[in-house]
Amino acid sequence: MRVRFILSQIGSGLKSNIAMAISVVLVTFVSLAFVGSAALMQVQIGKLKDDWYDKVEVSVFMCPADSLQPSCAGGEATDDQLDDVRGILESEALAPYVSKVYLETKEEAYDNFVEQFGDEDWAQAITADQMQVSFRIKLVDPEQYEVIADELTGRTGVQQVQDQRKIFEPLFLVLNRATVLSVGLAVVMIVAAVLLITTTIRLSAMSRSRETSIMRLVGASNLFIQLPFMLEGAIAALVGAALAVGGLWGAVDYLQGWLADQITWVNLVNTADVWTIAPILVLVGILLAGVSSAVSLSRYTKV
To answer: Which residues on adjacent β-strands are paired with residue 257?
Structure first.
């Protein structure tokens, strides 16, 4: 009997404030969609770092014949200097940091150059003798680039130590800023959702003040009086959360199908990632309803 009464009160409240209930659903949907987008953006950044940082190398470019670098004052790097650098890279001191060392000769550098730029007119004037020898170093931890740079930068015969991670940093910076923007918009929308849910519950409580007064007179508990109003907000917020999850799932599924054949070198977020963050969105929806209910009901249905 009590459950039937509570359900009837919920239905009555939703019907009498249908426009406000729809508004709560929509604003919750939009706010949680931004929250979910920010979470998926961070998942995508994590995947990019896992994929690309695992592939990047540290390149140690040895001195060519015409370099103006102070460390190249003696001219092109000699065989002794090459052996010296290789010895450092393969030493016991750097063993915990260096996974693999590969020497790229002038001929190999030229072959790679021709493969990338051979069709360009300006590339026809380049010869193998103009290339420079370099070491390609695979690190155990790509974040430990500074260890190699400190050991080799400025050493005689070494022109430059280059970390390929720096190529990707601007991209990650843009993605992180996009995440911050999404979070900022999400916070604004969540505040709007709290205010709207609070207003909806307040109007519902005021419109049924007569019923709540009678319930107080017959000895109904505070929880029994407040429960229908709390569930109204929770239902609206959960519907909004469900729409947010569905919208994100549809967007990711569409983008994944559209971009999968065009961008094969990127491990994109997928629908499984959406389901991973779905409980978080539902929890945020429940918290929205809980906070809003606590604010409203503390005044308008207080025993």
So the answer is: none
User: Per-residue confidence at 99, pLDDT binned at 50, 70, 90?
Assistant: confident
Question: In the 8-state DSSP scheme, what is residue 70?
Answer: G
Token representation of residue 194: 């709290």
Task: Provide CB contacts within 8 A for 214, sequence distance 6+.
Answer: none
Q: Residue 39: which of 298, 297, 284, 290 has the closest Cα?
A: 284
Q: Give the pLDDT confidence score for residue 303 in this predicted structure.
A: 43
Q: What angle do CA 121, 130, 78 make, to 5 degrees?
A: 170
Domain with CATH 3.30.70.3040 in the chain: 57-163
Cα torsion angle, 168, 171, 177, 182, sign: negative
Report the CATH number of the 57-163 domain.
Answer: 3.30.70.3040
pLDDT, tens digit (0-9, with 9 covering 90-100), for 267-278: 778 888 889 989
SS3 158: strand
Strands 58-62 and 98-104: unpaired
Task: Supply 263's token pair.
Answer: 């961008």
**Residue 1 confidence class, pLDDT cut points 50, 70, 90:** very low
Listed in sequence order, the DSSP H helices in the chain are 2-16, 18-53, 79-89, 106-117, 145-152, 165-207, 209-217, 222-259, 271-300
- CA 153/CA 147 separation, integer angstroms: 10
Q: pLDDT-derived band of residue 5, with 50, 70 and 90 as boundaries?
A: very low
pTM > 0.85:
no
Count the neighbouring beta carbons within 10 Å of the beta carbon of residue 36. Answer: 26
Look up tokens 């007179």; give the residue. Answer: 217
pLDDT band at 218; cut points 50, 70, 90: low
Q: Which amino acid is at 257?
A: G
How many Cα atoms occupy the beta-carbon half-sphere of 104 within 13 Å?
19
Q: How far apart are CA 115 and CA 2, in angstroms?
A: 78
Q: What are the CA-CA distances from residue 73 to residues 63, 159, 203 (Å)?
A: 9, 10, 82
